[in-house]
């Protein structure tokens, strides 16, 4: 089984990504690191523990809190989309088992696992890239020790979702994102809005998951999220940003990618966090990113439903 670390800012769609990763049975999840993003680090950590409880994940899967704020900027929470609690009000009263068992800092856990299993670990990052940047600052050789990194973030051919041009994860910590993209990873895949906006989950899809506790949770947690998506896009559905990044680790054939040079804007009043993709190689730089450009959304949603459906 492929070894993986999830780096999350749990959030509604991060939660769906965690469910997919663990329930698929295709990934050996070594641990989950949390980061400030949609909600505070503390809430993201607590939400991660809640989701792991909900799906009865192996108690050995521990959670490692990382950065409580971006490298240089103030946090920008996304309560409007994910709710005050980050899970759209679902699991509000749950008291999860505390899976933070050690003092190990999230970025250190990444470093330690990559050293223990050189060339074997896939890092799937579905929040702002602060933890990954901190790990790289401490151990630059991480780029060669990991098997690959898959990032949910960016938008190269479509508009942004937090500013006209920026995708949320890139916008929250553009300095970290820039550091990660420029670090020299031989295998870095970017799953951005170009593909995630085509991977839509509807209430009919959720009906196909249940009846079950998980289906109820998905319905409740995505309810406001779908409403916000409708207000912006006129479609009653929610974009499966983070689950698609997880799916790319499990079933890479679902997403078509192309190699390009990509950089992140960090010094513009209007465009901070924009991912700039050099499609025509005007800058004459080596490609650093496999950019997701097309997705087989039907297959993806079918597989997502199958994985979440209760078969017991
Ligand atoms: C990303 O932003 C967050 O709000 C989501 O959890 C996802 O990781 C989508 O732009
Ligand atoms: Ca996220």
Automatic annotation (TrEMBL):
The protein's matches in SUPFAM superfamilies, at most eight in alphabetical order, are given as: Nucleoside hydrolase
Q: Which Pfam families match?
A: IU_nuc_hydro (PF01156)
GO MF annotations, alphabetized = hydrolase activity
Domain of life from the UniProt record: Bacteria
Print the keywords alphabetically.
Answer: Glycosidase, Hydrolase
Q: Which InterPro entries match?
A: Inosine/uridine_hydrolase_dom, IUNH, Ribo_hydro-like
Domain Inosine/uridine-preferring nucleoside hydrolase: where? 5-301
Give the protein name, as stated in the record.
Nucleoside hydrolase
- Origin organism is Paenibacillus aceti
């Amino acid at each position: 089984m492929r070894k993986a670390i999830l780096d999350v800012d749990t959030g509604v769609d991060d939660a769906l990504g965690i469910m997919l990763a663990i329930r698929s049975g295709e990934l050996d999840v070594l641990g989950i690191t949390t980061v400030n993003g949609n909600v505070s680090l503390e809430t993201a950590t607590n939400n991660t523990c809640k989701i792991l409880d909900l799906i009865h994940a192996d108690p050995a899967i521990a959670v490692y809190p990382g950065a409580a704020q971006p490298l240089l900027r103030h946090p920008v929470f996304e309560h409007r989309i994910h709710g005050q609690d980050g899970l759209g009000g679902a699991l509000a009263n749950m008291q999860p088992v505390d899976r933070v068992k050690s003092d190990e800092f999230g970025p250190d856990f990444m470093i330690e696992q990559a050293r223990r299993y050189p060339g074997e670990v896939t890092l799937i990052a579905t929040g702002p890239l602060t933890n990954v940047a901190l790990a790289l600052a401490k151990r630059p050789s991480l780029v060669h020790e990991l098997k690959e990194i898959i990032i949910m973030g960016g938008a190269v051919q479509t508009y942004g979702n937090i500013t006209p041009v920026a995708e949320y994860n890139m916008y929250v910590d553009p300095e970290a994102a820039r550091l990660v993209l420029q670090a020299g990873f031989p295998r870095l895949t970017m799953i951005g809005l170009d593909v995630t906006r085509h991977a839509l989950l509807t209430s009919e899809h959720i009906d196909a998951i249940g009846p079950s506790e998980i289906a109820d949770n998905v319905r409740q947690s995505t309810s406001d999220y779908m409403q916000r998506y409708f207000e912006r896009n006129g479609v009653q559905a929610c974009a499966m940003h983070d689950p698609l990044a997880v799916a790319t680790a499990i079933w890479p054939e679902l997403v078509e990618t192309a190699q390009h040079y990509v950089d992140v804007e960090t010094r513009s009043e209007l465009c901070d966090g924009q991912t700039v993709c050099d499609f025509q190689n005007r800058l004459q730089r080596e490609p650093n990113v496999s950019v997701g450009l097309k997705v087989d959304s039907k297959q993806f949603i079918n597989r997502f439903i199958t994985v979440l459906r209760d078969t017991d």
